[in-house]
Amino acid sequence: MTVTTSTTDAEALTLTIATELAAAPERAWQLWADPRQLERWWGPPTYPATFHRHEFEVGGQSRYYMTGPAGDRSHAWFRFTAIDERHRLDFDDGFSDNAGEPIDPNDHAHITVTFEPTDAGTRMTVLTQFSSSEQLERLIAMGMQEGMAEAMGQIDAILAEG
């Protein structure tokens, strides 16, 4: 498993998950830029993601859903707010309806992903900033922290393929 730390800070309203990847930042970046790679790891193994829209540019949006073991679907969206290729990625992430439209555009978390080269590859840190303590508590109670760690644990296998 690639996850090295997973920390929730209720006072700062953040969840931070860091991973060590055995790949250069250029390769780690592709895990986000390519929707076919992203859907192979975004979501825990029991809730795989399917991206049907992925506009990987500032102002662009993604739409995806995760399919549960019973076939149930949870829909969500991204809105990219900053992209510094191979260094940093910022986006908003929220829930959407079955058509992919945000249920409440103001009810979203902001995610910042940073990529730092290391001797062994890349340290990728995913910082989720929640808008309120209620949102943090709701998403943590839904299993977000464990789910994201399980999701990121799938990355090694993708990188091993080249």
TrEMBL record:
Cross-referenced SUPFAM superfamilies: Bet v1-like
Location of the Activator of Hsp90 ATPase homologue 1/2-like C-terminal domain: 23-159
Annotated family: Belongs to the AHA1 family.
Name of protein: SRPBCC domain-containing protein
